[in-house]
Amino acid sequence: MTEQGPQAAAPEVPRRNWAGNVRYAARAFHRPTSTDELRRLVAGSTRLRAVGSGHSFNRFGDTDGDLVSLAGLPQTVEVDHERGQVTVSGAMRYGDLARQLHTQGYALANLASLPHISVAGAVATATHGSGQTHGNLASAVAGLELVTADGDLLRVDRDTDRFAGMVVGLGALGLVTRVTVDVVPAFELRQYVRLDLDREALDEALGSAYSVSVFTDWRTPRLREVWRKQAADQPPPSADWLGTTAADEPRHPVLGMPPENCTPQLGEPGPWHERLPHFKLGFTPSSGDELQSEYHVPRAAAADALAALDDVAHLIAPVLLVCELRTVAADELWLSPNHRRDSFVVHFTWIEDTAAVLPVVAAVEERLAPFAPRPHWGKVFVTDPAELASRYPHYADFTTLLSDLDPKGTFRTDVLDRYFPR
Ligand SMILES: Cc1cc2nc3c(=O)[nH]c(=O)nc-3n(C[C@H](O)[C@H](O)[C@H](O)COP(=O)(O)OP(=O)(O)OC[C@H]3O[C@@H](n4cnc5c(N)ncnc54)[C@H](O)[C@@H]3O)c2cc1C
Predict the structure, then answer these.
(1) Ligand 1 in contact with 61 (CB < 6 A)?
(2) 10 pLDDT above the threshold of 80
């Protein structure tokens, strides 16, 4: 499956998510072309949700009412040079934003593994990249413009009361039409892949460069690959760096998938937006036939969390395509999995077999429970709602925010009701 082209790639409102495990239950699909049209649509609906690029794996955003894509709205990118911020349309893909920013000499501090996702959709679920000093993508958000349940336009920024509760909003507070994000000067990176890391060296490896991802398969205790995205002027890793060897040809994280889908490796310097994501815009990210789960635990618990998972490695390995280990810096956002916690993140790309995967997800969650794992809001998890609530100090505050901004429950979905009962 090859995905091609920029924004025109998705002229229709998707009927199912990217992975195909969720067929949207909406009774009507909409693609308004102006904010006024969108506002009328919202005001006239009793049950409605936005869909971004559909890269989530669960039903948090699946409504039985109206499903709306904002991709038909005018796509704008406005840089505020004085504030060091950019305001973009919520439906814009990170990859398209990155290209435009780069031509103006700017960058985002971090990106996810794929550039295909919409800004509003990614921020709503606290999507993240890797790097011990980098927050998730939502933590860079300085302002939002939303169409609220009554069709009004609401603008909020870091000075607004309860802003920290609104950014990772799970799509449940309103339709995000514009997002303001902090930018930094454009920069260059080199990407090196190193093979066969000893687990003892994991912490050092994860802290060794701008953004580091470690891939493993749970078939041996050793870690298969380290993807180091390092400043272009940082010297390359030495020949025997942390006991690893250098990959001598480009790699794909999923064995058997084409490396051409991935951003350049082997130390070739290039712009931030063509090195931070693992996957290239215009190509299939990851495997395409898959499910994903991901858990954030305190960074200090990394070694213990992996040791706990050793007990279920024999369950994980048969249903796994690849496991990725990353880090994310703490932030203040209420529903961010990184809320006040520097995090170690364990990601699983599973085979596309929900029945086989769900019991393993439950086993993983049970093993990680002592570390109070916070699951990725856009992926597959089975955490008990009360348990999940106990892991977020502002869970009750968010529930209040939900009912204040959406008293009639227009943006509520069955899964949202389960996790945030009215
Ligand atoms: C191959 C692959 C790789 C991935 N890699 C990463 C990764 O590196 N790091 C990571 O953290 N995650 C990763 N993800 C997960 C992905 O980033 C999240 O699921 C993200 O939310 C997807 O963005 P989207 O635009 O597709 O949103 P969707 O899945 O379309 O929507 C997500 C939620 O946002 C809401 N929403 C969408 N648009 C709006 C809007 N305009 N206003 C209000 N609410 C809105 C929806 O209602 C829904 O609740 C990956 C997913 C895939 C498929």
Answers:
(1) yes
(2) no
